[in-house]
Structures are given as structure tokens and as C-alpha cells.
Amino acid sequence: MRAIPTDLGVAACVVKDSKILLVKESRGPKAGFWGMPKGAVDQGESPAKAVLRELREECGIGGKVLGLIAIRERVNNGIPGIFIAYSVTIDEYEIKIDPNEISEYGWFSISEFDNIKWISQAMRDIASSSLDGKILNLTDYSSERKEHYFVFS
Q1: Has residue 91 got a pLDDT over 80?
Q2: Which region, left, alpha or beta, applies to residue 17 given φ > 0 means left and ψ of -120 to 50 means alpha?
Q3: Nearest Cα to 37, choosing from 15, 14, 19, 18?
């Protein structure tokens, strides 16, 4: 097997009282659009750790990965892109957004989805799956393997 350049992104699906945490982008081509807290995985970082870092950076809260909600794959300009949406539980509910990345946040029920300017239909579908409770559970084998090793099943 050989490594290839890949665009790898993650999203945190945080659900509380049948509502999902959404953030509104404040900059870039998606400014003004809503989605889950998300971002790119850094070199040498596991995707599961990246999603918690992004949640901390964008919303100022910590969390724990519970499982996997969805994987989106695509090819853009010849480069594979993988986007992993994790189910995340949070430690605290006092959101402190980073205004350089996020202009607003809110907790939304599925009945409000038609009124949201979504980043993409895929983001909306992932949010719906999260609220439906569709989740692959995480098993952490890292201790016995002596390296980062998660299985979602």
C-alpha cells in the first residue's frame, strides 16, 4: 500500500435535547453558511483528535468522541477527499465561539432545517442522521496496540 495526498476533514456532531449544535462560518467561500463545527486534520494528527481540537478552537468546549455518524468521500481536481463526521459528547455547554472563524452558533431541531442556509446538502443530511441517532460505536484498542487504534462498528 502506498500513501497518496488526501484532503482529510472532520466534523463534530453534538446533540443535546434533540437539537444539534450548528455554527455559521464567518470567513472564506462558505461565510454565512451553517454546518457542524469542522475543519482539516493536521499532519500527524488522528482524525478523532482533530475533531476535538476543531470543537475547542471554534466553540471553546471540550468533548469526547462517542462514535461515527457519516463518511463523505469525493475526488476534487484529482485529489481524494474524505470527510468524517463524529458523534461527540461535550463537557460543558457554555459556547465561546472564535469570531475569526464563526459568526454565530445555535442549537437546532430537525423541524428548523428548512430555514437554515446550509454549507451543503451533505452537511444537512449528516446533521439529520446525527439527530436520528444513527451511530457506529467507538472501541479504543490503543492501549493494547501501543498506538492510536480506533474501530467503529
Answers
A1: yes
A2: left
A3: 14
pLDDT tens by residue, 10-49: 999 999 999 999 999 999 999 999 999 999 999 999 999 9
Please indicate, yes or no, whether the overall pTM of this predicted structure exceeds 0.90.
yes
CA distance 29 to 14: 24
Neighbour count for residue 77 (Cβ, 10 Å) = 6
Strand partners, 39: 10
Q: List all residues 6 or more positions away from 98 whose beta carbon is below 8 Å from its beta carbon.
A: 57, 58, 59, 60
The residue assigned the cell 430537525 is 110
The rounded distance, in Å, linking the Cα atoms of 96 and 60 is 5
Query: Can you list the domains of the chain with their CATH numbers?
Result: 7-152 (3.90.79.10)
Sequence-ordered strand ranges (E) for the chain:
7-13, 15-16, 19-25, 34-35, 38-40, 63-76, 79-90, 102-108, 136-140, 150-152
